[in-house]
Amino acid sequence: GIVDSTKIGEEVTTDENGRFRFNPGSHSYPFMLSVTANGKTYYSLMTGADRQVNINAATTIITQLALNTSQLANAQR
Fold first, then answer.
1. What is the bridge-based pairing of β-strands 31-37 and 9-10?
2. In b/e form, how buried is each residue of 49-74, taking b as 16+ CB within 10 angstroms?
3. Predicted confidence band at 76 (pLDDT cuts at 50, 70, 90)?
4. 2 CB neighbour count, 10 Å cutoff
5. Distance of alpha carbon 53 from alpha carbon 59, whole angstroms
6. Is the confidence at residue 23, as pLDDT, over 70?
């Protein structure tokens, strides 16, 4: 899923290579992304348009540090 700072978000489906397209509309950057795979959820931040975003265990830790929380699932609600 993708949420902005107001916690408004949407679900996005990736293709077979993990790529997706997202139109922010009236929402503002940055956005927090979450991906669930094999029973684990990973997080990352998208800071601007036309960016490639990696999402894995390392970006989850970076996102926790950037948002100063280990409870990222709660940060999305």
1. unpaired
2. eeeeeebeeebbeebeeeeeeeebee
3. low
4. 19
5. 9
6. yes
